[in-house]
Amino acid sequence: MVDSTEPSAGPRADEAVPGFDLSRFKLIGQGAEARVWEGSYLDVPAIMKQRFSKKYRHAILDKKITQSRLKQEVRSIVRARKLGVPTPVLYYVEQETNSIYMEKVEGMSVKAALQSRALDEQGLHALLREIGRQVALLHDGGLIHGDLTTSNMLLRSPENKLVLIDFGLSYNNTLAEDKAVDLYVLERAFTSAHSALGNLFDDVLASYRQHSRLWCPTLNKFAEVRMRGRKRTMVG
């Protein structure tokens, strides 16, 4: 998930991007790889994600890497939807500016909803089960999200339907180890941001086990990844 922190390796927010009209969009966030803008596409509210070049890389190599990651992100969004996982609708991909135009999902992030206690107990447990179900669909389909956090999950208003976003680090893989790391990243997101609400991740994991056809090797690896993570924490 991108944030408003401006990394030193990236260009300034007001730096011109060839072929990109800044006047139509408002910058709402930036991460290490891309900026996120809010505006409209064909008069429809939209989000535009634009990957920027890295000045420290050779220009030809940088272009190749940037466009490869752009294509992978687009393919992952399309693949996730085919697997039955809700994502923002893609409107247009502009390779010249390394930009993806997509639907603006109205609602709040799962992180914000949990921190503000916006859900009642029934709604909370339904959400946790749905998170586990959607991650299981991704993994059984051979897709690793790469950045599973509650910031990268939205609740679409007004029905509070879960939508996964930010597939910028996603890739295709069927290895149990990679799925386990995906789950571990999500567990750390819950323990670091939502520990005051109790062990919410247990419900997510139970739902994952219920909905995944390949849960056994993945959860066995998850136990190993979790143990390695705890050892690193203890050592410092």
Walk me through what this model shows.
- It is globular and about 45 Å long.
- A hairpin with a 4-residue loop joins strand 8 and strand 9.
- The protein starts with 24 loop residues before the first strand and ends with a helix.
- With 236 residues, the chain is of the alpha+beta class.
- The strands form 3 sheets. A 5-stranded antiparallel sheet has the order 1-2-3-5-4, with helices on one face.
- The longest helix is centred in the first third of the chain and has 24 residues, at 59-82.
- The protein is 42% helix and 20% strand.
- It is an enzyme of class 2 (transferase).
- It catalyses: L-threonyl-[protein] + ATP = O-phospho-L-threonyl-[protein] + ADP + H(+); L-seryl-[protein] + ATP = O-phospho-L-seryl-[protein] + ADP + H(+).
Give the structure's gist in a few sentences:
Residues 22-236 form the Protein kinase domain. This protein has a 5-stranded antiparallel β-sheet, with helices on one face. A 3-stranded antiparallel β-sheet has the order 6-8-9. Strands 7-10 form a two-stranded antiparallel sheet.
